[in-house]
């Protein structure tokens, strides 16, 4: 199996994952992200306690790329500090924009590196980064 096929299978698997597709009871961070060009829409709910992301809820719908990216993001940030989650978002977005290309730096993204070549498909870039930008907004400047 070629690497591209492996990544395609991984994206498909995560796009169908329902692990985080649930509303949270009393989230203390909530943000909606919309990609008007294709209709992707995500409602990100977070429970942050003592600066740790305890729980994540993903609501909304969209294409396989946006859904897989959101699922991978949720898996990566659960249990992390707000600072670590912001660093992951910055690295992921940098990878997509090709401003972060160092393999060592990208290791923190784990399976989310499957999106590394999405920048070769400009129409899909917004799909891949929607949840990550929504996360940055939800976490704010604090």
Automatic annotation (TrEMBL):
InterPro entries (alphabetical): NIF_FeS_clus_asmbl_NifU_N (IPR002871)
Any one biological process term the GO annotation gives: iron-sulfur cluster assembly
Sequence ranges assigned to domain NIF system FeS cluster assembly NifU N-terminal in this UniProt record: 31-125
Superkingdom of the organism of origin: Bacteria
Signal peptide limits: none
GO molecular function: iron ion binding; iron-sulfur cluster binding
Short name of one Pfam family: NifU_N
Family listed: Belongs to the NifU family.
Name of the protein: SUF system NifU family Fe-S cluster assembly protein
Organism: Candidatus Galacturonatibacter soehngenii
């Amino acid at each position: 199996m070629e690497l591209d096929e492996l990544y395609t299978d991984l994206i498909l698997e995560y796009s169908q994952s329902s692990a985080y597709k649930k509303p949270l009871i009393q989230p203390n961070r909530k943000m909606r992200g919309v990609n008007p060009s294709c209709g992707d829409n995500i409602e990100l709910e977070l429970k942050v306690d003592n600066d740790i992301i305890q729980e994540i809820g993903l609501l909304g719908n969209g294409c396989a790329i946006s859904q897989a990216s959101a699922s991978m993001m949720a898996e990566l940030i659960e249990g992390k500090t707000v600072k670590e989650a912001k660093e992951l978002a910055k690295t992921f977005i940098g990878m997509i924009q090709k401003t972060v290309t160092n393999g060592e730096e990208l290791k923190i993204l784990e399976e989310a590196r499957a999106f590394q070549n999405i920048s070769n498909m400009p129409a899909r870039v917004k799909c891949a980064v929607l949840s990550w930008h929504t996360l940055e907004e939800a976490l704010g400047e604090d």
